[in-house]
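Subject: Interface between my chains keeps coming out wrong

I've been trying for a while to get a sensible model of this assembly. When I model each chain on its own everything looks fine, but I need the whole thing in one frame so I can look at the contacts. Pasting all components below, labels as-is. Any help appreciated, I'm running out of ideas.
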Amino acid sequence: MGDKGVIDRRGFLAGGTGLAVAAGFGSAASAQEPAPAQAPAAPPAAKPLPAYVAWKDPETLIVHSNQTIETKRGAIGTSLVTDEDRLYIRNNVNPPPDSILADRDGWRVEIAGVREPRTLTVAELKGLGLATVATVLQCSGNGRKYFQDKLTGGQKISGTPWTVGAAGCVIWSGVPLKAVVEALGGADGRARFITGTGGEELPAGLKPKDVIVERSVPIANLDTVILAWEMNGKPISLAHGGPLRMIVPGYSGVNNIKYVKTVALTEQETDAKIQASSYRMHGVGEKGSPSQPSVWEQPVRSWITAPLEGAKAGRNQIVGVAFGGMNAVSRVEVSVDGGATWREAAFVGPDLGRFAWRAFVLPVDLPAGRHVLASRATDAKGNVQPEESEINGGGYSHNGWRGPALTVEVA
Amino acid sequence: MGDKGVIDRRGFLAGGTGLAVAAGFGSAASAQEPAPAQAPAAPPAAKPLPAYVAWKDPETLIVHSNQTIETKRGAIGTSLVTDEDRLYIRNNVNPPPDSILADRDGWRVEIAGVREPRTLTVAELKGLGLATVATVLQCSGNGRKYFQDKLTGGQKISGTPWTVGAAGCVIWSGVPLKAVVEALGGADGRARFITGTGGEELPAGLKPKDVIVERSVPIANLDTVILAWEMNGKPISLAHGGPLRMIVPGYSGVNNIKYVKTVALTEQETDAKIQASSYRMHGVGEKGSPSQPSVWEQPVRSWITAPLEGAKAGRNQIVGVAFGGMNAVSRVEVSVDGGATWREAAFVGPDLGRFAWRAFVLPVDLPAGRHVLASRATDAKGNVQPEESEINGGGYSHNGWRGPALTVEVA
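Reply #2:
Try treating it as a single job with all components included. I did that and got this:
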């Protein structure tokens, strides 16, 4: 991993600069996000990876804390899938011991709120059906830093200052929850939500409801939710929710329950704190409550991943990723003048489905000097990224195009 | 990796058995390919991974030799992409030192047979365009074992006894070769082939033409060939051809030149041995020659990946992968009675394009006893897998459905 990391850093993440020297071009160029963006990113990058993800590639990641690890912008590729070696990490509670992976097919999940409730093993789930879906897995707070940079006076938004790297696109395989429910006689009673409970060991001395990872999503998702045991062609690692994870396509990360131990069809949302007051949309300084919108569906979003540095005058390929949350992304525009004018970019590569992201490219001739690069996506329902997202107290669901704009110095 | 490997083996590769015990079901069932198939696979599995791929997952691989490493059938997942940790390896010459990855963007490739021939760096290639394509990467000899098992008398087919694991499906990003050719003034003269040369260091004391990895493919592929620097979201590893690999979508592995150092548009095929006499379709015991068909386009193929063992009486999901080589795979049929009757399976997951494989599933109720499971794919042009492939001296391009059929004992 170490060697591979060094190679990644020198050849890929900072490749342009290396090339400029190697090819005998002029002075290396450099890029940065708007000045204030730089400061916080640097120090955390020095932190070592925690033991449970020691197998990840440190050169591609920014370690904010043991439970919050971000993919570097330059490590997001264009070949659509995000390798687990560089996929972001965000946990609300410490992961269980990896001994839970010793017998993956023996992992048990309780299915409740159905006419014939029972506990099923993963091996039994594998007999009930198979579905494979590509989804953008993204922390609800991805882009929070762009909100925090705009705070004034006594305003405060706590939480990890993610920029764009608390997101990835991965392919899951598992059983459709709908097939499981049907095998158990169908929903029992007035099911209005799908409530999943994680298998984390809860810290002692705290009220379980205050720390348990239990989320409810609308029953309408029964058509797309899967209980997954595989990610990107391999059994799901502990760090990403193995042996079994509840995937809610199009919904932000927190709704995709790791090491899921209970899935219930319920009439009410869970009253666990993580649902009742956390991950709610409210004003800065306000408290969260069940009356506020929950952080569920992801809005349309995009960002540029190259060039970050090493750009030289002449033809450049501006590339990035775009997704529409619950809807397919239908269009991406790119600006090289800070949003004054826009040109439509082209999608490249296969379409992995409406819940996945797509890579985009726009060839542009850039003269020497400073350029502000931005991307703006539109989804199949006509939703367009705004210039600025409306600020909210939790710093959730950022999708403005101005925040992740890049200022690039072209040599 | 070691820990993850153990988890894979116990929980995934042999998961069914683990489950049978964990869930208190009856005696564990077992599966095997037709008896003769077992023998050769076991011993090589014990060999350690060579240093240049020490980072791969040993529990998912069969090491035939340092240059021929096969993915275990049970390690082929349904989430479409094959992780580099378990992707097969086949080299004709030792890989170059990994120092060639120290400056990926500085890697130079000579482009010849164009009006303005030039040597370009990877950084310069990145400025010329971007394409992303999912392809089945498969050794020309994948399935050779099924030919070898049918040899009679003094017949001999040398080469690695691959079953189904010398193949994977990966997503590449790079520059379209067509864009590179156009940037250099277009083809010079009567170009009939695209000839790529690998960057391996040739062993001393041998005639270069006898060992150099240099292959020619028809110029018609100029519309789809890419020079790739990324695989599955990461810079291409040395083992899989980084920093730059020539990808010929739909063509067998040998045509996808690793560490490509020269790409030439040529009027004639190269006279290198690997093209002139190796990888040719000819009878058993005959010598290869340029007059014989070259091993280029991959034929339609499929195989079942589960259940391999642990199957129990009742509902089972029979799953596998299928692909059409140059054409999209349009249909997969599954038989549970050794080919006497067939039922159409359903494709699952996104369609990654005509050069990729698709996962398929068929739910079946299997009574206790022995069952012979087989799959048979049809491509968009109506080509159907035959029961047996016509035997050839090199053991190339196997695509019969009988060979990879599985005999499963259901408890």
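Reply #3:
Confirming on my end. Chain B has two domains: 51-277, 301-410.
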